[in-house]
From TrEMBL:
This is Glucose 1-dehydrogenase. It is an enzyme of class 1 (oxidoreductase). Pfam families: adh_short_C2. NCBIfam families: PRK07231.1 (NF005559). GO terms for molecular function: glucose 1-dehydrogenase [NAD(P)+] activity. It comes from Tardiphaga alba. The lineage of its organism: Bacteria, Pseudomonadati, Pseudomonadota, Alphaproteobacteria, Hyphomicrobiales.
Length: 256
């Protein structure tokens, strides 16, 4: 019964923003478990480099250009995935960004841009892949939230709102699409060493050391820390797990 529990051979996964950071860490996990990967990224050169890494490891992978706020591009990406691989089993809504300003300083356009990129795109892309997953007899959707799905942060009003929204959106899909055998879960990363946080570290004095001091694990997270959770949530191993929001943060969020 447990044989092949984590085997993703024959499965097809789309990872948005999968050309670097956490998305690429997850893509490596899925590829190692046997899945074919669509790296759906904005920067095609970066996506092709990510695909080259995956293919060098013996996996099937392609790069598709995707600006997640462009609905037509989302539809084209789904159609191109089906053309290339014939099915979609796994979607990771990972693309995300932040504008670090307090609520009194954040412009409306900045608010809208963060909400669209981090939250609205997850809705648009999930809705676009739902028919293919249903037709395949089931699927797995993994949405990337944040510790700021739970915590407040004075300098990230739109980011926090978008990441809190991701958890509630995940729960809606989990309930609505359970009859289609589609499990939807959210992953809440802690402080992870990626391009996104390299900017934050430049802007916020002492951030690096404060994270180290508070983290029970005593280190920043790495993109590779997301390979295992991706495989678990994309595989048969998690068939009875849906609507969950799982911290992957080295214990940061449970430290009082
Ligand atoms: P990165 O900056 O390395 O990755 C973000 C990815 O999202 C990039 O590939 C970026 O593309 C892509 N992206 C951003 N906007 C768009 C867009 N409009 N259309 C298409 N792609 C887009 O950061 P992380 O790996 O850290 O972030 C991945 C996810 O993890 C995000 O949702 C982030 O909010 C979340 N997260 C990260 C944490 C951390 O500590 N790093 C903590 C909590 C959550 P491009 O390279 O072209 O900009």
């Amino acid at each position: 019964m447990t044989k092949g529990l984590f085997d993703l051979t024959g499965r097809v996964a789309i990872v948005t923003g999968g050309n670097g950071g956490i998305g690429l860490g997850m893509a490596h996990g899925l590829a190692a478990a046997g899945a074919s990967i669509v790296v759906a990224g904005r920067n095609q050169a970066k996506s092709e480099a990510a695909v080259a890494e995956l293919v060098a490891g013996g996996s099937k992978a392609i790069a598709l250009t995707l600006e997640v706020n462009d609905t037509a591009a989302v539809k084209a990406m789904v159609a191109d995935t089906l053309k290339a691989f014939g099915r979609i089993d796994i979607l990771i809504n990972n693309a995300g960004m932040n504008v670090r300003k307090s609520p009194d300083k954040l412009a409306l356009e900045e608010w809208e841009s963060v909400i669209k990129t981090n939250l609205t795109s997850a809705f648009v892309i999930s809705q676009a892949v739902h028919p293919a997953m249903k037709e395949a007899g089931g699927g797995k959707i993994i949405n990337i939230g944040s510790m700021m799905s739970i915590f407040g942060a004075s300098f990230s009003p739109a980011y926090g709102a978008s990441k809190g929204g991701i958890v509630q959106f995940t729960r809606s899909c989990a309930i609505a699409w359970a009859p289609d055998n589609i499990q939807c879960n959210a992953v809440l990363p802690g402080w992870i060493d990626t391009e996104l946080t390299q900017n934050a570290r430049r802007e916020v004095d002492g951030l690096h050391d404060r994270v180290l001091a508070r983290s029970p694990s005593g280190r920043w997270g790495l993109a590779g820390d997301f390979a295992g959770i991706a495989v678990f949530l994309a595989s048969r191993a998690s068939d009875f797990v849906t609507g969950a929001a799982i911290p992957v943060d080295g214990g940061y969020s449970v430290q009082g």
